[in-house]
Design a protein that fits this description.
The structure holds two protein chains of two kinds. Chain A is α/β, with parallel strands linked by helices. In chain A, about 30% of the residues lie in helices and about 15% in strands. The radius of gyration of chain A is 24 Å and the shape is globular. Chain B folds into three domains: about 170 residues, NADH-ubiquinone oxidoreductase 51kDa subunit (Rossmann fold, 3-Layer(aba) Sandwich); about 70 residues, Roll (Ubiquitin-like (UB roll)); about 80 residues, Up-down Bundle (de novo design (two linked rop proteins)). In chain B, strand 2, helix 5 and strand 3 form a beta-alpha-beta unit. In chain B, helix 1 packs antiparallel against helix 2, helix 9 packs antiparallel against helix 10 and helix 10 runs antiparallel to helix 11. The chains are: A alpha/beta, B alpha/beta. At the A-B interface, helix 2 and strand 8 of A face helix 9, helix 10 and helix 11 of B.
Amino acid sequence: MKTIQITIEGKKIKAREGQTILEAARENKIEIPTLCFHPDLEAKAGCRLCLVEIKGKKGMHTACSTKSEKGMEIIIDSPKIKKARKINLELIFAQHREECDDCVWRDNCRLLKLAKEYGLNIARFSDRKNNFPCHQFGPSIVFDTSKCIDCRNCVEVCRKQGVNFLDIEEKNSFFEIFPTKDKKRDCIYCGQCLAHCPVGAFESVGEYEDIEKPFEDKSKVIVVQFAPAIRTSIGEEFGMKPGEVVTDKLVAAIRKLGVDKVFDVSVGADFTTMEEAKELMEKITKGKGACLSSCCPSWVKFVEFNYPEFISCLATTRSPHIILGALIKTYWAQKEKIDPKKIKVISIMPCTSKKYEVERDELKIEGTKPVDYVMTTRELARLFKKRNIDLKNIKPEPADNPLGIPSGAGVIYGATGGVAESALRTAYYMITGKNLKNVNLKNVRGMEGIKKAEINIKGLRAKIAVITGTGNAENILKELKKNPKAYAAVEVMACPGGCIGGGGQPLPSTPEIRRQRAEALYQIDAKKKLRLAHESPIVKKIYKEFLNNEKIIHTICHTKYFKKSREVKI
Amino acid sequence: MPYQDIISKLKKSGLKGRSGSSFPTGLKWESVKNAKAKKKYIICNAAEGEPEVFKDDFILKNYPEKVVEGIKIALKTIDNSSAYIYINKNYFKKYGQKLKKIIRKLPIEIFQKKTEFGAYIGGEETSIIESIEGKRAEPRQKPPHPTQNGLFGFPTLVNNVETFYYVSKITEGKYENTRFYSISGEVNNKGVFELSEDLTVKEVLEQTENWPEFDFFAQIGGGGEGEIFLPQELDKPIQYLASIIIFDKKKTDPYGLMGKWVDFLMKGNCDNCAPCREGLYRIKEMIDKKKMEKETLDDLFLVLEETSFCPLGKGSTIPFKSLIDKILK
């Protein structure tokens, strides 16, 4: 792309043709305040805070939506701009009911930061939305409309997800955002509305009023397991860089909460890999059509509700934390001679949808839920802060045995493509009896919405599609409708970049931050000696001692799916 | 007449768009004609939506053939084009069948304006485009201008009903620099009048026997965003939308009037940008309390005029400012 020169506040900078003023400024480390802008979404230019003046052009313009032009002279901080920004901020402030203590943006609220910077009179106008209602979406998400500033990022991201659960309707001369009344549309609990809301109008259920609750029952043996995607993101809550690996610090910090055991969900992922590889092998060798991944509960719900004709294609393998929860309450409980009913399993997840997944009745084993409670990354971080546990400076400790040492394959589950890569590494072994010479399947990695690859296993060619974002999955499903054998395996993660961009992760969630979180997971894998699930000693041991017949494997590791009608009640 | 001559005729005539923005019609046509694209669109805006403005209603009732003729000329002038008439539900009910009969096999589709979206903003040209594309009727960021990148990404000519009417007049050589004036309010002779565009407001009112005997003020340019003028200020022609509304100064409650405007604007806007959505609401609060606080009002006017996304927000201060300045004081 052509490089052009523009001037911002007298400083000459280079911009690419077609780039917005905001993009050019940020690339040159020049800050222009924004609120509604999100790099994942179209610039809606609604908050009118990124105002700039352009020499030779009348009035003020928004940097997020105005393209740079050759020779443009841009002013970003004149007294007039500052005044207009301040007034618009006051107007926005007055439509947003403050609930700062309990807000997902508590520690890095842009609205509050700007209010201080601009010396706002935050009480200039009365709160417009004081009596506005809260809506709850299943067991996962709460939408507090009294905090909403009408930027409609949530509506756009929900539409991009192919979900369309949020509508804009007129009420008392305002167009407001409502969960749809249409019975043919339902929330899939991915939480991308939350991740793209600039002011915390969305939060997960229990965030943060219930963060102490799961740890209160002292009569129980409390076991905490943490998801693959947490280890490279939770550090952000403690001032560390995105992608800083904190696995062992995280374990030490969780222990400080006074829990009995800390296990790693990546070990559960190794079992998921084993079972999913078997399903994959079946499809590849028998040419039976596509195997759709099923680790992501939002994707599963998306299929069950919107595309029930594909339910039979979903892998029946359970998701990693559900398998590990079940192993904790069966295999481990037997070993430790603990009554499974006395064990409480708490999963720390990057995800709002996992709060919904654990409520699924068909996952129960002899009437017991494999996982009792799901907390998001953010909720755990808040609990650490509340208890003055400093994750950044804590002495690292390894996770507990025997469910604490995963393969590298189990770790990359947190990034888009990770499940497919792990399963293919193992399926290759299962089909050929040999390990891949190069286990790095780089063409299924990366942040693109749809990635396609072809793999040659003993002369069998298998086409793979890896998708991030349920909206992107719709095209592949259409393709599969026409030709059921178009792909042997399709991995879908609802959130951008996979679980590292989940609705339960630290905010903000931007393409660059997600790239760093994912890259760090691949680094962990690359540094490990153990990179294949089927070579994991604990996996081998448990298959030998416990998961040694089809019936028990089925009980612990597999599930079923149902055609769904709308679940969310409004 | 050869169609290549039409644009020079339009330019020569000095015809300006009659939707209120007064853009030279010839230039607009030329811009769309010269744009390089496989396909082009023409939109006739028949979504007149401002209170007390009913000139397009009058034209559609009396001269639908002329309007369709104007669109037909555009179709012939602009290669590979097809057209839409974007029309109010109400106007469609009244004139839809008649228009269809006139259109017959011409590539002109009648598109009814959706009512669930911002009532007034739905008449702005980029919002019309969004609406025909099946999206919410919300204004687009300009540039690109519709003449380069409009409906479905193709160069698009958007003109008002009245503009197309005059295009046909110009090609017939019968254009006499007239325009249509809607006159309403406290007048004897309410209606639409076709008169010279050079007339002052005073002359228009006199010629139509509407100059009031009582102390009055006038709102020029529409009952939503029109500006308030005192009788002594009416010695000049109308610059924008040709609508004149007369108010009896003694009988008119300025707060009631401002309340009507603000309700119309709040209902008619799209609520996308903060100054328009929130600023108008805060003006309404003051009107309801019958207390216009100057400092706050000045601040709100500033952000509305300078930072609103589209012309509706930017122009929304005009009636309030002028009424407060001239009448309330």
